[in-house]
Structures are given as structure tokens and as C-alpha cells.
Amino acid sequence: MSQEQFSAILDLLRRPKPRDVDLIPLFVQLEHDYPCNVENQIDDLTGVWELRWSSSNAPYLQVQPWFENLQILLPTDKRAVNLLKLPAPLGGIAVVAALQIQPPKRIGITFIRGGWIGPKLSLFKPKLITNIKQEFPAWLDVTVLTNELRLSRGSNGTLFALIKRHDLNTSELTSPLSL
To answer: What is the pLDDT of residues 25-43, one digit of tens each?
Structure first.
């Protein structure tokens, strides 16, 4: 796949509602052409990722105009955060997870705690966080990984396409969670 084709995929993902029929064949081709080895691509994996497409029907796993669905990955710290950023003044919903890199492409996930993080009020940021008792193993297979695009398949078969958000800072997004 050429750089122009790769750029075209990123452009499709940045649209409000990219069509499955346009993307799925391209994803299959990318998975064939660019197999991932997570252990060798930790720098590419690290950072803030925005969900831009999902094969799931769950509303929180779809691109929506009223929230940003972000994933902050810190594999060297063995931590991750799923963050639904809601419009002001609502704050967001966050879930903190422990990560285990399982080469070549699997990431084991153990959800630790989650809840609501309110908007910043002067110097105070309210939060309502509780521990999570995970009853089942969860994992992601990272099938394509560049510094701009990540394709992953979840333990329940869902395919995810995420683009890296170089404009967002991992520390700013995770500081209310005391990682």
C-alpha cells in the first residue's frame, strides 16, 4: 500500500461517519501488509488515541458528535485509560486499566477503577471513582500500528480504528486519575 493510499485511509477516518463498505476492505489489506509487533513498537503505541471507527453497535464505541472517545496508552508504565470526554460542563467518564504486553500483538487488559471526572472548578476537579472487579479476561490484538493509525481487534471480536492525537498531552489527561 502506498503512502497516498495510507493518507487516504486517515482522511476517511477523520470524516464524521466513514462508511463500513469503504473501510473494511482497506483494513483487511493493511492487516495483511503491515503486521504489528507491539514489543518492537512501544514508542508508536504510547500516547493518546482517538476512536474513529468501530464494528461495534454499542453507542459508546461509535464516533459521536457529542463526545470524544480517547484511549491513553502508557505501556512502559503498564497503564491505560479509556476516556469519554463529554462536552463542558459535564466532564468525562474514565476507566483505568493495567496493561500486559504479550508479543507479538496482544495486550492483556485488567480494568482497575473507573467513574466520573468532573469539569475543573477553579483549582478543584471533582471526581467519583470506584474500583472495578473484573470477572473476565480482556485483551486487544493490535493488528496494525504506525505513529498515526492503530487497528485493534478486541476479545469480543470488535474491530477498532484509532488515530493518534499528537495535539493532546497524556499527563494532562491522566493527572486527575493519579496514575
So the answer is: 999 999 999 899 999 999 9
